[in-house]
Amino acid sequence: MQKILVIEDEAAIRRVLKKIISEENEMYEVFEAEDGIQGLEMIMNEDYDLVLCDIKMPKMDGVEVLEKAKKIKPEIVMVMISGHGDLDTAVQTMRLGAFDYISKPPDLNRLLNTVRNALDKKNLVVENKRLKKKVSKNYEMVGESQAITHIKDIIEKVAATDARVLITGPNGTGKELVAHWLHEKSARSKAPLVEVNCAAIPSELIESELFGHVKGSFTGANKDRAGKFEAANGGTIFLDEIGDMSLSAQAKVLRALQENKVARVGSDKDIKVNVRIIAATNKDLKNEISKGSFREDLYHRLAVILVKVPALNDRREDIPLLINFFAKKIAEEQGGVQKVFSEKAITLLQQYDWTGNIRELRNVVERLIILGGNEVSEMDVSTFASK
Questions:
Q1: Which residue, 24, 139, 352, 387, could crosslink 180 as a Cys pair with Cβ 3.0–4.6 Å?
Q2: Are residues 170 and 300 in the same domain?
């Protein structure tokens, strides 16, 4: 059932609205409030898929109800009911977040179309939240070791700010997970997180990839193209393996940080950007600075907050949790039943030298699930997880 609340001080109009909406769809459950105070109290205590609210009411008018409801439940969907003299106010409520408004006396088709459209929006909001939660699970940081708990604490403190973060650690440790968590817990989470693997892009193309280019700026530039910084405007850009970036590209990234501007390759026109930068590397950047291959001024700009992700060998106590997490995830992906790992199998896996870190562990768990018995045993580990 979809719950609809009608807040209207005129009992006759309230009854008409309830009758029309209830008869339209048996899945609509309509509730009534006779004034703004009662309506706001009901909104606080119950979740409604849609609220129809009159503008002119005693005790508390509809504009105040809308403003307070949006503060309590920002995603609430409200349609305002306006008299002929309230049209300017009705338009104002749209700016305050109302979905739409309908005039008195309500036109049947207009009313039902508005209700359907408003409920469609509510369904989209619910679906987006579900998908977002699903995406978040894909980037879940698993572990209860002291090192991982420390990283989670840093993320909780830093995510809400725009502070730049430099994530360090060996390959396969999950540096990208830290970047995703920082973004998803930030105020920028509704804007894009744009990832750039600096090591995977040829040095001669990295500037075009980051900052875009104009037509004819180099061979193969057949049209204007926006770069990753423009694509991430309002959100976050994650520069993975930044230690592999060319010095010329580093200079332009530094300018983007200092001035919040970028220029496409082949153009002298500045483009304003508002992005948060998160960078990651498996290299010792201070050592790269001493060798002259990384700019010291860029390092200090990026390393406002430093997060060091430990190697799996340094957090072996998390391996049982990781094995269970991967086993569950693989079962969901393959549509099978989650396999159980015996205690001896887990103990043996904890003793391995995980040079490939979490990425390697995930591959080994998948191999054991495919090739091992109904319960993955110590013998399965010895046979199929050979290093």
A1: 139
A2: yes
Cα–Cα dist 289/297, whole Å: 10
- Alpha-carbon torsion angle 3, 9, 15, 18, nearest 10: -20
75-99 tens-digit pLDDT: 899 999 988 667 778 888 888 899 9
Query: Which pLDDT band, with edges at 50, 70 and 90, does 378 fall under?
Result: very high
Q: Would you place residue 138 in the very low, low, confident or very high pLDDT band (cuts 50, 70, 90)?
A: low
Please indicate, yes or no, whether residues 259 and 355 belong to a single structural domain of this protein.
Answer: no
Tell me the pTM.
Answer: 0.65
Count other Cβ atoms within 10 Å, centred on residue 150: 13
Q: Helix 108-138 vs helix 11-24: angle between axes, to the nearest 10 degrees?
A: 60
Angle between helices 87-95 and 62-72 (to 10 degrees): 10
Judge whether 274 and 233 are in contact, CB under 8 Å.
yes
* Full residue range of the structural domain in which residue 331 is found: 313-384
- Residue 266 in tokens: 């082949």
Percent over 70 (pLDDT), the chain: 95
Burial tier of 1 (Cβ tally within 10 Å: 0-12, 13-18, 19+) = exposed
Query: How far is 166 from 188, CA to CA, in rounded Å?
Result: 18
